[in-house]
Amino acid sequence: xxxxxxxxxxxxxxxxxxxxxxxxxxxxxxxxxxxxxxxxxxxxxxxxxxxxxxxxxxxxxxxxxxxxxxxxxxxxxxxxxxxxxxxxxxxxxxxxxxxxxxxxxxxxxxxxxxxxxxxxxxxxxxxxxxxxxxxxxxxxxxxxxxxxxxxxxxxxxxxxxxxxxxxxxxxxxxxxxxxxxxxxxxxxxxxxxxxxxxxxxxxxxxxxxxxxxxxxxxxxxxxxxxxxxxxxxxxxxxxxxxxxxxxxxxxxxxxxxxxxxxxxxxxxxxxxxxxxxxxxxxxxxxxxxxxxxxxxxxxxxxxxxxxx
Length: 308
Ligand code: MTE
Prior knowledge:
The protein is α+β, with helices and mostly antiparallel strands. It has one domain (4-299): Oxidoreductase, molybdopterin-binding domain (Sulfite Oxidase, Chain A, domain 2). It is built from 9 helices and 12 strands. The chain has helices spanning 15-26, 30-37, 61-66, 79-83, 108-114, 141-148, 186-190, 242-246, 292-295; strands at 93-98, 104-107, 118-125, 130-140, 156-161, 181-185, 195-200, 203-204, 214-216, 229-235, 270-273, 283-284. Strands 3, 4, 7, 8, 9, 11 and 12 form a 7-stranded mixed sheet that branches. A 5-stranded mixed sheet has the order 2-1-10-5-6. A hairpin with a 2-residue loop joins β7 (195-200) and β8. α1 runs antiparallel to α2. The protein is globular. The protein starts with 14 loop residues before the first helix and ends in a 13-residue tail after the last helix. 40% of the residues are buried. The structure holds ligand MTE. The site of ligand MTE has 16 residues, from loops.
């Protein structure tokens, strides 16, 4: 797959210049940072702060790509970085089936030619109580679902990760019931915050982060953001997601970030921001990971203690 698919700009942007642009556009510390790196004023115009972006400082590319959960490559945080290079991501296609008008195998190149690649700087909160801020590149999942044409009877979307034990060493052991499966309610899947990520920092998505195509649902715990997706099914029944199947007392279907509902073995009230250093204080976790204004309406009338 060519890197060009992931680029919302005309060229790959070095991380320092990238961060300076953000600082300038957000209206803080711009001048000092600019002077320090010698970034040019003409770097600015192709940049746009959009409504969904957080202005919190993004984690570094290195942090985002060296502290991962991707059990197909091992359960250690650095295992995916070490092992995921074995994954072949080109060619890649996504099977879309179930309650759709145009079921079939969608080649990644064909998909990318028809969607709008965008940049989204999202908070990312893992159920293990660590968090990051990640500048993704990707497109809204609703664009892909509309390509396939969702039938009115569909209520849920089921996602499946690639099953290829010869390239994914973790799949040779029964760590989880492979392949990894996740699910969303259709309205969650169609929400404009829900994206399929294809890149990071304007670069092709590294394998350890779920190349070439992974779901990102920023108001839910990170395990909903399923990696290396090869199958999407529109269906009437609620899908059985892998972590719920593994331990339904600890992990539910909804998995909305919620500081008021503890994990049975730890509190979800606070989180550790990766990169903060050993002595950094924990920060308060915000309901729906800070996206309540955008998604709160989806859950009116739902008991979030029962629907965890
Ligand atoms: N997808 C697959 N296929 N396998 C996994 O083990 N881990 C999940 C999620 N998606 C996982 C997955 C969990 S627990 C988290 S927190 C995020 O991916 C981590 O994403 P990151 O490594 O890009 O930060």
